[in-house]
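Q: Joint fold for the lines below.
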Amino acid sequence: MRALLQNGLVWLAATFVALLFVTALLADYVAPYPPNERSDSALLSPPSAAHVLGTDQQGRDTLSLLLHGARVALAVGFGATLISMFIGVPLGLFSGWRGGLVDSALMGLSEVFFAFPGILLAILLVFITQQPSITNVMLALSATGWAGWARLVRGQVLQESEKEYVNFATTVGAGTARILFRHILPNIMSVVLVQVSFAVGAAILAESSLSFLGLGPQDMASWGSLLSEGAALFVCSPYVATFSGLAIFLSVLSFNIIGDRLRDRLAQPDPISRS
Amino acid sequence: MALRPLPLLALRILGKLFRTVVVLLGVLTLVFVVVRAVPGDPAVSILGEQAPPEELARLRGEMGLDRPLPEQFARYLGQVLDGSLGTPYSRARSGTTVGDLVREVIPYTLELALSAVLVAICLALPLGLLAALYRNRAVDHGALAITLVGIAMPGFWLGPLLIHFVSIRLGLLPDPAAGVQGLPSLVLPAFVLGLALSAKLTRMVRTSVLDVLEQPYVMAARARGLPRHRVVIRHVLRNALIPVATVLGLQFAALLSGAIIAEKVFARPGIGTLLLEGIAQRDYAIVQGTALFIGAVYVLVNFVVDLLYMAIDPRIAHSFARGGRE
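A: Joint structure:
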């Protein structure tokens, strides 16, 4: 019964994520209205047949804005995660394998970036670009994210380096790149995959936070900016803030549930507890 | 000749201190470079594009922007060391330093962060302990569900919801818009900030308690016939709290950045509000000073937690003293 409940939850989360992908890809077709179409007769209207989730203070359809906002959330979520990985994973592999001064220098550098907790560094980087776009937000989040990947992968490399297959590869004269990318990386891929799920959820939350602070992509509908506008008018109409917050919450929750399940399946320690 | 135990431990602490100073210098450099990378001329941002060139040149001179970058960095280093952190560009704040502004708001952020830690401990300790003691049972699953929700719940969503229902609809606590200060105004922001922390902490407590429960001395205590509650409180919880305390210390520093959102949602003064004001006014000195302050606090708290960890857990101190490795 318990397993059934857990599996059901994972399936629900996976279905939600799949739906998110589909709506993000097909937002132009499935959204009932263009995202910026305004209806002067329906400002801050509650849910109705014409506007299933109501409208915002500019008369825009909330559902259409949320469907288009899924694009921003997923693009930043996966974009920032992939960029962070492409920087952090090779650095972590190299740092853990070489050890010594290289390891100390790279880990020292990651510590400097780690000293900016949460979204602080991203706030600074978006600030210097002065025109927050989806690319700038992605890059800003990656500037903080790579350090976490580097430290995670380095730890794994240190464990793997002790194993027989690595000793064997070294003995037969395999080069550093071959050992790292052909032997060690495939063996730590499960850890990386689990972390991807958590990282995407965290990046979606970070993007929403930046948008809420007015530092998110300005030219596109984003859940965080919608929530920020809705929160200011919560007393008049709670719908915009409620539905946009729900979209962020369910997305992050779904990615975390999938990550948790993957971790359990692959029998890894809890990354949150480990941190 | 082998070093005696005590100097080895002292060396270890000195090594950590050296690393902390290097990271602090790195943080300082990164903030300096990032703020200097802002496109455009700060003097133009302040005086406007129509300002006469001589006025702009005078302001650039006052701000030291006409000097070479190494000289600007040396000047900035001096301002950090004397605690002034530079002068705000905004004319409305003439006569004060960024350091003054930070010192003025830090008690607000500190009281918020401390209250959030208190909320987190009150939620996480019983929940994590129960989850571990009743592993794989309904309580454990319930705790896991709560932590999942806590981690995924955006504070900038929960905050407005709580303000609407608790403050405006039910009138139980003051509405932040009314600008009321004091303990009642602290309850909601502390809860919102503490909930996310409690989710992480609950998992940490659970894992830590499960680890301790498997230790031979716990089984020995049970075998000696000690009552379960006594074993849990005196042996399990006490030892399980060591790693929890470490995580809590690190998370406390991270709360400073979480406070940026909470302060905005609840319209509270604080370091986050000061940073956002600096960004809105394009006051680079304030942005630089607040970011450096948060980064430096994080690094220093990290260092103190490392030292406390050695002090709390004698095994670590002994392992260092014997020349053990990290």
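Q: Anything notable?
A: The CA atoms of residues 203 and 217 of chain B lie 23 Å apart. The first helix of chain B runs from residue 5 to 36.
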